[in-house]
Amino acid sequence: MKEKEKRDWRFKVADRELKIGLLLAVIHFLWWFGFAYGMGKGPVSGYKYIWGLPAWFFYSCIAGFVFITILVVLSVKFLFKDVPFEEEGNER
């Protein structure tokens, strides 16, 4: 089985797409953590507000969601490849 996995090009594509997915998850976590704990560590009286929400929450949760959604859509559209699930030579 290992020999077939090494020869099958789909495993190389899957590994590449896994790395892209992990990178997107790390980017999202760093974005969220940076804004949530970077801007939200002061006293509540010093908070700035956007649309009635604390700025740290708006940037970490609302803007972060929009940002990562755009990155995921662009990644799927331009970096991911359509791969068939059927094995080659297994036609009925």
List the topology elements.
Blueprint: H1 2-7, H2 9-39, E1 49-50, E2 53-54, H3 55-78
Antiparallel strand pairs: 1-2
Give a written overview of the molecule.
This protein is mainly α and 92 residues long. It contains three helices and two strands; from the N terminus they run ααββα. The protein has helices spanning 2-7, 9-39, 55-78, and strands at 49-50, 53-54. The protein has a two-stranded antiparallel ribbon with strand order 1-2. Helix 2 (9-39) runs antiparallel to helix 3 (55-78). It is elongated. It starts with a helix and ends in a 14-residue tail after the last helix. The model has no long low-confidence stretch (mean pLDDT 89).
Helix percentage: 55-70%
Order of helices and strands: HHEEH
Tell me the structural class: mainly alpha
Mean pLDDT: 89
Strand content: under 5%
Spatial gap, N to C terminus = 22 Å
The largest sheet is:
2 strands, antiparallel
Shape: elongated
Q: Please report the number of helical segments.
A: 3
What low-confidence regions span 5 or more consecutive residues with pLDDT below 50?
A: none
Number of strands: 2
Q: Tell me the Rg in angstroms.
A: 21 Å
> What's the arrangement of strands in the largest beta sheet?
1-2
In short:
With 92 residues, the protein is mainly alpha-helical. The chain contains 3 helices and 2 strands, in the order ααββα.
Structural key phrases:
single chain, 92 residues, mainly alpha, two-stranded antiparallel ribbon, 3 helices, 2 strands, 66% helix, elongated
